[in-house]
Design goal:
Elements: H1 5-18, E1 23-27, H2 30-41, E2 45-50, E3 54-59, E4 61-62, E5 65-66, E6 71-73, E7 82-83, E8 97-102, E9 105-108, H3 109-115, E10 119-125
Antiparallel strand pairs: 1-3, 2-3, 4-5, 6-10, 7-10, 8-9, 8-10
């Protein structure tokens, strides 16, 4: 049994990028679907394919290098991290994104600031 499925998803993406795989498969959940959709929308992955029980994430490479330089899980089951709408962090001085779980759904940092909502800071990607 996994205690942190989002950290598992991020670790699978990180490991697949390091091994230069074309795609990675993760177990499906609504939260992971929303995170993968944000990654596709922001251009960090090529495509997200929803299977019956899995999500296939097609990884993106720029000139042979991974599009995702780094990612970090912020809020963990042992230590939750919540931020207000006015204290959403800038990742890598604006070069990355943060993903939040808000009352409006799972949003990236800029969308959460526009809607003026805060929430649980799930992860940072750059």
């Amino acid at each position: 049994m996994l205690t942190d499925p989002i950290a598992d998803m991020l670790t699978r993406i990180r490991n697949a990028h390091m091994a230069l795989h074309k795609e990675v498969s993760v177990p499906r959940s609504r939260m992971k679907e929303a995170i993968a959709a944000i990654l596709k929308q922001e251009g960090y992955v090529e495509d997200v394919i929803l299977q019956d029980r899995t999500i296939d994430v097609v990884l993106r490479y720029l000139q042979g290098r991974p599009a995702i330089a780094g990612l970090r899980r912020v809020s963990r089951p042992g230590r939750r991290a919540y931020v207000g709408s006015n204290s959403i962090p800038r990742v890598q001085n604006g070069l990355g994104i943060c993903i939040l779980s808000t009352s409006q759904g799972v949003l990236d940092g800029t969308a959460a600031q526009e809607k003026k909502v805060g929430g649980e800071l799930l992860c940072e990607i750059w």
